[in-house]
Amino acid sequence: MAGAQPQDKKMIKINTNENAFPPSSGVLKALADFDGRELRKYSSLENNDLRGVLADNLAVHQDQIIVGNGSDDILALAFLSFFNSTDPILFPDTTYGFYKVWADLFRIPFEEVPLSDEFEIVTTDYVNSVNGGIVIANPNAPTGIFKDLSEVEAIVAANQDVVVIIDEAYIAFGGESALPLLEQYDNIFITRTFSKDAALAGLRVGYGIGSPKLISVINAVKNSYNPYSVDLIAEALATAAVVDSAYYAQVNAEISVTRDWFSAELRALGFEVLPSKTNFVLTKPASISAREVFEFLQAKKIYVRYFGDKARLSDYLRISIGTQDEMSKVIQVIGDLFE
């Protein structure tokens, strides 16, 4: 179940990994300048404005990019387009929950591969297995752990007869992108979103990057049922966000600094904190249950994510990283619980 969306304006909402900062001034200007009269027309089929600036920003060809209605849209399209084998696709047992949902929905056989006791993806589990495709979030969610690019390449290289999807929703907050692997491997498909690093979760725009061959296949599927998936306003604002990439690099670096500070403060309180390269941390409270901390914080109008009945995560909380002031307040309130 997705994180709650409370509407209290006085709360600290750090349960759904939204960006701590507002969109860039360029995005806000693009919104203010948008000519609403244009909405009588359909949006673009090709989204060339957005794909063009993305291609320049990522140093790839425009025909290597597809955009859609959030990375969920892109991932669902990828499942439909690339996973048609009778062999199971592989993804971790603790990862983004929609992978299993899409596999069930589209009747794709799958196998959930257990993470290690340290919540790490085990490379050999994906190198030595017969499969119909692989999906890995890197950094992983909800663990926040990044897998070294050399090990990602080992997985891609060992599975060149299937598509390997690398979900990079959080790559802007740490780690190394798999983009360089595109030059050597045609079986890799990278997905990204504007929701996290571009502070546009409410806009719903995402994109995928792969070989022209893979993009042509997924485009054919997209055009068969929802060709106008990115509306005119969304394309204008997302394009402005890419142009303002320097602003986002600055604020996302600030979020990463706050994340590392917050992790250290939690550890000082006795919490276990997994090493994170995202805009959230997965943490296990000391001498008290995760549920108790969750309920205590919620009573103080601080909303974090508690996974409840998920066996491996029932002792953990996922806490998104807000501003430095917000996270200082969170540490103060958690400290009160242990007094």
Automatic annotation (TrEMBL):
Is Transferase found in the keyword set? Answer: yes
For this UniProt record, the keywords arranged alphabetically read as follows:
Amino-acid biosynthesis, Aminotransferase, Histidine biosynthesis, Pyridoxal phosphate, Transferase
Q: Does the keyword Flavoprotein apply?
A: no
Its pathway is: Amino-acid biosynthesis; L-histidine biosynthesis; L-histidine from 5-phospho-alpha-D-ribose 1-diphosphate: step 7/9
Name all Aminotransferase class I/classII large domain ranges: 9-334
Q: Which residues carry this modification: N6-(pyridoxal phosphate)lysine?
A: K196
The highest taxon in the source lineage is Bacteria
Subunit text: Homodimer.
Protein name stated in the entry: Histidinol-phosphate aminotransferase
Q: Which gene encodes it?
A: hisC
